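Box 4.2: Ligand-aware structure prediction
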Amino acid sequence: MTTTPDGGFGIYVHWPFCAAKCPYCDFNSHVRHQPVDQDRFVAAFERELAHFAAWTPNRTVQSIFFGGGTPSLMLPRTVERILEAIARHWAIDTDVEISLEANPSSVEAERFRGYRAAGVNRVSLGVQALNDQDLRQLGRLHDVAGALQAIEIARETFPRLSFDLIYARPGQTVTGWEAELRQAVKLAADHLSLYQLTIEEGTPFFNLYQAGKLIVPDPDLGAEFYELTQDLTADLGLPAYEVSNHARPGAECRHNLVYWRYGDYVGVGPGAHGRLSLGATKRATAIERHPETWLAHVEERGHGMVEDLPLSDEEQGDEYLLMGLRLIEGVDMRRYERLSGRSIDPRRLNDLLEHGMVEKLDETRVRATRDGFFVLDAVVADLAA
Ligand SMILES: C[S@@+](CC[C@H](N)C(=O)[O-])C[C@H]1O[C@@H](n2cnc3c(N)ncnc32)[C@H](O)[C@@H]1O
Ligand code: SF4
């Protein structure tokens, strides 16, 4: 018999390489000038999966996500072997979602049919902008024509397709974004991820920003971009279901829902994180970030885990709120009580309701309002205090 934890069960596979490093990105991604030995990486993924499978027998996998980095640099055979390994260890839901993040270059688009044959049924394309000048400024290797072509090939190849755009870019106007967003909704089948540009410490964009050489929209203008994004996508039939994610109802990314509904997930590959309910405790796992060090660890001891911590009831409650309040469906206060062992203070809840930071959906569910989304960490801190 298999069991499904509250929120579901998924597997995240991190591919840590990119063809070039984008100047705004602080994901765990590395550029290698020598070809990556994919056979050796597959063997390491197989071993790390086996390690986590021994912890989580009798689970049914509802989603698998190849993230990065740039997973579309993986050979189709690499993806196939990892999927075969997963199927050897766990039962797979008949309706499993298997997503892969792809960069929209022509070389990568050529591999799409191979990924589909391997079992991938959803692709998320890193389009980022529908404007050549901005794509260059973002340091991207593709242009708009290439992105449109990749979208078309992906649409013909996969049952489900999403793409990412970054907005509130240096010099971008709200009107310019509106036109781009209208085009994006037309191109998108049923899902879009729309991220406001974040200036991440340690990136070249951060240094330019500090030096006054990169001007990004101030918080008020950022809020205007955000409002427009929410209103327009809702009008056009792709409403937000999470802070940055938009879908036609029913087309939400099931993998991301596992995170936000505080389900369980195995995270394998350099820098991956996991959350696993084992017995009465939920554990937080983290994997070595550096790709070759990870390889060496796995080859030596069967996994690259550098952290494996039991989460206290309080931490679980906090995490549930932090993840769940990102969702338009909000959180269930009874589940919060079950996880944290305490209830939300009614006075604090009333305060937040009165200030318009959260709203009640019914007796047990609350969600953040649009104003609440802007100060989500503070809302969570208040509710969990
Ligand atoms: C891990 S990346 C993987 C996708 C793929 N490598 C690509 O870039 O096309 C996931 C997404 O995060 C977004 N992203 C990365 N850095 C960001 C930043 N500093 N601000 C906003 N969005 C960012 C991009 O839209 C990107 O597509
Ligand atoms: S944004 Fe994507 S392609 Fe660019 S460095 Fe980050 S992970 Fe790689």
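In the box above, the bound molecule is S-adenosylmethionine. The chain has two domains: 9-258, 313-384.
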